[in-house]
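LOG
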Amino acid sequence: MELQDRAFEGLNPDVVLDAVESVGYECDCRILTLNSYENRVYQIGIEGGEPLIAKFYRAGRWSDEQILEEHQFSFELVEHELPVVAPLTIDGTSLLRFAAMRFALYPRKGGHAPEFDNLDNLLIMGRLLGRIHAVGATRPFVHRPQLDSRSFGYDSVALVSAKFVPPAYKANYDVLAADLLQGVDALLSATVTNIRTHGDCHAGNILWRDNAPHLVDLDDARMAPAMQDIWMMLSGDRTRQSVQLAEIVSGYEEFHTFQPQQLRLIEALRSLRILHYCAWLARRWDDPTFPHHFPWFNTERYWGEHILELREQIAALNEPQLTVM
């Protein structure tokens, strides 16, 4: 088991409460484990106040500089009156320490998952992303990485192929992954404008309340094409996706310029996410949390379905790009 996983083993309720109290809060002993796998996240009851969210960072994933840069981005968005849940600053810093662990505290914000099949909601999301990207485009990240085919694609395939793909599937996997990445590289070869993005803008990272979205968890924030924050909101057949895209773009362009040339990147970005997600599970398989919550991974059925998914993505890369209806 890797060092970061052993560190999480010792993260019991007493340690969590001690960490929160070490920065000046008095806990009321209520603790609720929240749905998070990469890091460990808890809701903590506070005496005489609203509960807080404590996020303990997995060691070895981000440097201090990268975490603080993510926090700074969220502070910058809040300064522009954007509905982003930013960490609390305590004694001049948002990155806190207890023993060998790093953590951050956040105010608790309620809400429900967004309904992306509602076109009015997509218009609102487009406005929010336009505002976020207008801020994100003002300057680059210095420490956080860039989304590219090397880190998300080739490195992912190398790991999975060497250590996880069963022999019966390996030849097909290697050929299909290589063909898929060749297609991704062809689409990414043109000059693409990268800006600071949320990086993981799916429904699970959006809380809907008071008829408006609130973004949480910028843990995957990185330099990427603006389309990275848009494509995950699209679903259904091509016609439906074009209608959804039109609503998003309509709201987006009220605050920031939409680059239609980035429409060609949708399937390339989807392909990289598929490869990266598989490798993410593989990298974390020694963490006992992962086999428990993802029992279907690394089974014969999983690899058969993953091979089919790669074939489908190769076909998708060769389809005409989506248009805004």
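LOG (cont.) second protein
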Amino acid sequence: MSQEGFTGVPASIDAPEIGVGMLGYAFMGRAHTNALKKLPYMIYPPPAVPKLIAVCGRNEAATREMAQRFGYEGYYTDWRKMLEDDRIKLFDNGGPNDVHLEPCVAAAEAGIHILCEKPLGRTAEEAKAMRDAAEKAGVKHMVAHNYRFVPALRHARDLIASGALGRLYHFRAMYLQDWLMPHFNTARLWRMDKSVAGSGAIGDLASHIIDLGRFLLGAEFKSVSAVTRTFIEERPLPDGSGLGKVDVDDAFAAVVEFDNGVIGTLEGSRLAAGRKNYEMIEVNGEKGSLYFNLERMNELNVFWAEEEHKETLGFHNVLITEGYHPWLEHWWPAGHIIGWEHTFVHEIAHFLDCIFNGKAVAPFGADFDDGYRQAVVADAIVESARTGTQVDCTY
């Protein structure tokens, strides 16, 4: 095979560049960065090519290591300094919940587009302030609700929106993990500190299933009746100096109603033994049902109430890997599954498309208004549990 003219260097991608500043070097910082690097050659041609300008974090050694490992041009330990870097046009906030509000408002006021991890704010009040600042500045804004970009869940939304399930009756969702089980002896991390996290399982897990309820049903929450529980009230401090108080919820359960008449339940726990990342969603309607399990994220289970072949009546397990399923054209042949990390590729590609092609982030992505509405429901769960009453969701 002739190699004439081949230099071994790939041709440049004919797409605009956008400079990215990342806040956070841990779990979400790495997940987002992996997607930023993978996007240009898998979502091809890309709407834009992310250029990794800088990463920012409180721990200088860890931040420097992140920059070197992932190929950022530099790093900062002060997000204010990073946002003064005029090469940065997209601020990706993957930091803890207590550094969502102030940096995102500052980025908006500087005219920088913003992608922020969920929950948008520790409270609905914080989320509203972020939404208002971004809308006033006219920048594009998106909350990183990456499960909207799971092909099976997007396919489920399309089925529901098409009317395939008919009138909708029920929505039930649970998000269960076990990393706080006693035998792990997990230290009191920031996710167990109300001043940093805002809440526990509610902000960590409920934020996802609240958002998916709104996304899948195309409806707003109307009211909630909830209980919360903190099962382990003290945990070892990270520095080994003793025990620290846990002042957030370990688990919650809620009965909910939507403004379209659907009723349902939400449940979340970080002490559900054996459940690693078990997010289950089920929707029941007059013509059928569907359910999804994130631990088997390439599958969607569908039941049709009036199926022609009665001998096969029951739930059908559908492998969502065909080229005509959402986003699968960018990946592998049918049957070759994709993973959790690919949802961030889809998500960021959508956001870049909105930035460079003047498109609205919603309804397919979650903009800051969606983040605010999710926070209103989360606050209602907290208030209902505190007062022992049903609480209306007032937006």
